[in-house]
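Ticket #295: bound-state structure for glutamic acid.
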Amino acid sequence: MNRSSYVGRFAPTPSGYLHFGSLVAALASYLDARAANGVWLMRMEDLDPPREVAGAQTAILQTLEAYGFEWDGDCVRQSERHDAYAQVLERWFSQGLAYTCTCSRKQLQAYDGVYPGLCRNLGHAPSDGAIRLRVPELEYRFTDRVQGEYRQHLGREAGDFVIRRRDGFYAYQLAVVIDDAWQGINNIVRGADLLDSTPRQLYLQELLGIAQPRYLHVPLITQPDGHKLGKSYRSPPLPADQATPLLLRALRALGQPTDEQLLYGTPQEVLRWAVQHWDAGQIPRLSVIAESGID
Ligand code: GLU
Ligand code: ZN
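RESOLUTION: The complex was predicted; output attached.
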């Protein structure tokens, strides 16, 4: 079959192992890309060495392989992309779009996560603090394929946000937009925890003159006790010998059909079947409670 123009990706952060929630996101992005005869790329978002778990990069890729996933080309690492981020940041800084913020966490406590622009016109040197990007007093909106219309007023709900941290590391928001564009990604499928990051990313795309990709945010998976699976809750690596049953659970979490016979199949067979039966229209919008036995 011919390749379509679809380019998707999975972009894990090695601050932990792959957990069931990230398996669901990986599966959705993989199936959506392959069902469209598209390309599926891999990018390791290793921007934050202090929070990186030793061995997590290798473990994540090995788990994905054990679960039957095949990505196109080599895995890109954001730790090798600092020059690209620096170039954009320096340009915006010299244009006055970005500025240095020396406020302490404590000073900002009262503002409830929305930075009030205290350092906007103070002219601090770039090396003196975090770098923030000025946001316009505008609403950014997009239509998510599962979540529907989503809107956020950047000035009121996000505020000028950090694009390079005080410790010198680049922020996720900046790197993700630069790299999605650089890799030619036109379809983003990821967890709904990033829904409220998307309007900031739309603004970054606008500044960079990048076409807006399509978005699909899959529901988050919660524990039966209400616990959210994920970064703050240190999940163990997914067991390699449970690939087939866990892929089937992930398919059910995504509202996709499964077949009893698949339980006896290899992970590759499950994925092949699931590509053929993929229907993004069946993905539930709200968070899904994990079947018991998944931590
Ligand atoms: N690296 C991010 C994460 O693991 C995902 C980024 C994205 O898909 O935009 O949560
Ligand atoms: Zn400040």
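RESOLUTION NOTES: Residues 7-79+219-289 form a domain with the Rossmann fold fold (CATH 3.40.50.620).
TICKET STATUS: resolved
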